Amino acid sequence: GSISTSSTWDTNIAPDFDVLIIGAGLSGIYALHRMRQLGLRARVLEAGGAEGGTWYWNRYPGARFDSESYSYQFSFSQEILDEWNWTEHFAPQTETLKYAQFVTDKLDLRRDMQFNTSIKSAHWRDDTCSWLLTDETGDQYTSRYLITCMGILNQPTYPNIPGVHDFKGEAFHTARWPEHASVDGKRVGIIGTGATGIQTIQEIAKTVGSLKVFQRTPNWTGPLRNAPITPEEMIEIRKRYPEIFKACADSHACFMHPAEPRGMFDISQEEREALWEDLYAKPGFAKWLSNFRDMHYDQKANDLYSNWVANKIRERVKDPVVAEKLIPKNHGYGTRRVPLETFYYEVYNQDNVELIDLNEDPIQKITETGVQTASRHIDLDVLIYATGFDAVTGAFTAVDFQGVGGVKLKDVWSEGPRTQLGLTVHGFPNMMMSMGPHQMFGNIPRSIEYAVSWIADCIKYCTENHINRIEATEDGVERWTEHVHKCAVGLLANDVDSWMTGVNKNVSHKQKRIIARYQGSAPGYRKLASEVAARNYADFNLA
Ligand code: N01
Predict the structure, then answer these.
(1) SS3 of 68, please?
(2) 153 CB under 6 A from ligand 1?
(3) What is the DSSP letter of 258?
(4) What is the ipTM for the molecules in this complex?
(5) Distance 196 CA to ligand 1 centre (A)
(6) Residues of the chain whose pLDDT is less than 50?
(7) Beta bridge partners of 142
């Protein structure tokens, strides 16, 4: 990078804002706070009716954290840490949404948040060195900087099944759950058995009349083992906050569960299985993340653990034919995001629940009254789409991002994301991404805090040093993309279709696997990104 002294644009035309922020989820909340602290004029533009992002939209029954609440909160404010109490180890969506509201109130952010504002385009204007955003009503907003805080799972996708709009009963995507919807006593069908489908199924199975689960691919899971937090226990947990955040900071993907240091074949089968029993009994992601690391890249190691977990499923499901259908056969444990469950398998022991394996009996179409499979018609009152998201890049495709010379971001990323540090893109000056593709990945709030801090420090530096324009270099993007691809080498997860490899079979341009996320270690990522800051952003083009 270099500092150019000759400005070719007219920065005397002041934009409306110093910073525009798209999205009022956790990223947008923290970004607005940091921009305010810098004394900048900032505004959040949010499509939803209020703040909360993921926790605003995803209101399906059973939605909750799969990570310990206290490891998935903000750590930047001691006051907030002191004042907020969690009531469950794995908080339900309602509590997490309240948390987002609490933080927003506490920091007095709402007066700079504009809701019900869906941004349709974001165009860079080189002549005035600013961003021009247009919402769906045609209203426009300009700013020097643009921070995208759009989340990685915000574009729900519906199944590409014929007749999807024909159903006359109630039908909804889990991410668009209507406020007063009830499934009690009804004939319910659900398509999708990812983390969302599993949380929904185990919850609604308690009250539905009947439930048909349409499963294309079973997933490996583990017991969540949630429990309430008593006020006394909350005091104890709060004392451990520094230790919890330290554990997150030290770990590969920022979770509080440290990896098992030994290799799977370093110890005897008895020792191994004792450890697995112990992990299975523990709450949260321990059974995935505190497991042997070789499981992630050694097929033999992975098979051993997968087979062990398969037997757990066999023990829990009474009908052996159903049990076999629930055991994944086309991918190993932990090669897709592992959903956590609470008596999920036991649901299939209920007389009113049926698992329909779409590999044996595919859906032909959705009709006015239900679902037509190859073998029969199933009448339904309610049809639930737990069919996932156009993940990671979907939020960027949904907005017409245009950079220098009108270049479209979706063209730049047509073969996969190309970024510098997952924070910036060549040709898109003054645009920074929180949770952009190829950014530190894992425990999302930890990634958000790091990314937003990095962005805030960078904007501060530019402002203080009269730099009007900062842009990723072509070379920097090339090197970062290579690095991200190198980090992915050998990991079994990259040989499996999932949103983490950029695949969504309902989206026409997402049929092919890519390296969609950063898989290097979080401490390694932070070291590299912090070095760039320490070099005064000389890796970028500054002007
Ligand atoms: O989405 P998914 P999700 N016909 O893409 C199926 C996070 N999360 O919303 O696997 C039939 O994982 C599809 O089948 P297949 C978490 O990171 C977090 O469940 O493609 N089936 C799959 O079973 C998670 O990973 C929490 O064969 C179709 C399902 O729909 C991410 O969100 C809670 C189909 C989609 O699964 C996404 O999870 C919940 C079709 N046409 C989620 N199309 C917490 O921790 C799709 N499917 C709080």
Answers:
(1) coil
(2) yes
(3) P
(4) 0.99
(5) 6
(6) 5-6
(7) 132
